[in-house]
Amino acid sequence: MIKASLRFVWLAVLAVVAVQAQAEGTVKIVDQYGIGSLLLKVVKDQKLIEKHGAKEGLPIDVQWNTLSGGAAVNDTLLSGAADVATIGIGPLLTIWDRTRDRQDFRAIAALGAVPVYLVSNNPRIKNIKDIGEQDRIAVVSVAVSQQGRLLQMASAKAYGDAEYARLDRLEVSMPHADATTAMLAGSSLIDLHFSNAPYQYQELENPKIHKVLSSIDILGGPSTGSVAAASAKWRSDNPKTYAAVRAALADAAKLVETDRAQAAAIYIRQDGSKLSPAFVEKILGDSEVSFSTVPQNTLQLGTFLHKVGVIRHEPKSWRDYFFNDDPSLKGS
What local confidence, expressed as pLDDT, does residue 21 receive? Predict the structure, then answer.
């Protein structure tokens, strides 16, 4: 009887070990459209996760999906449909705040500092205070997207913290590609679009569209816009796969830095873009654009979101919502 019980326990242990072993070597990644997550597109195109796994003797099955908007991406992370995902700093702070001491979602790495612009085709609108009840602002996810959070920050600066959500009711949820088409066509549905790259650059090619505000204006300088995020549990259960993801992102950053033409070609290929290589290369060469896995100027948004009550826990450092894999990194 005792031997049978011990055998049962041993089989149970083996089953747990087998499940853990099966977990290593598979990663489900959800990306978003746009140049802001170029590093992940390079990782996918060049099969960099698979290459780093192979170096460690671990075949890695990488499964990819692409969605539009931070809210949808957060849902995939929370449901377990994705292990790693591209999200903006605003959505990251929200999911970090709500899952502390549970799944504990944090950023693996920054994906770059690519500014986002609020643009308008209405000549009446010169600054945020010109936006009125008759106007409509396209964002990928009302209030909760990266652009939505930045607009709240801009509203607080213009009208005071109590009015941070003043413009939320004027927002319309719309994918960036659809909003760009509407703006260029002069549609009556929207007259502003809080955009991202490459769409904002396409829009500004039209002389009837102008920039009202940028993330650089709101945050006082360049800042990381998007990150790759995962849960602490997935990280601890899959240390080799996690390490391969981190190493792949670092390699992708080097490629973008050293070969702009190849990076542009990869973006066009992976996003199915019809933009010319020269146009994309021009964006990548913009002095406001950079790609680094080290976070830049992110804490300010977290401090604001806590101050107005959007998140309950105040981050004291960028390391609170990033995994501390390299204590020597000098992020912000």
Answer: 40
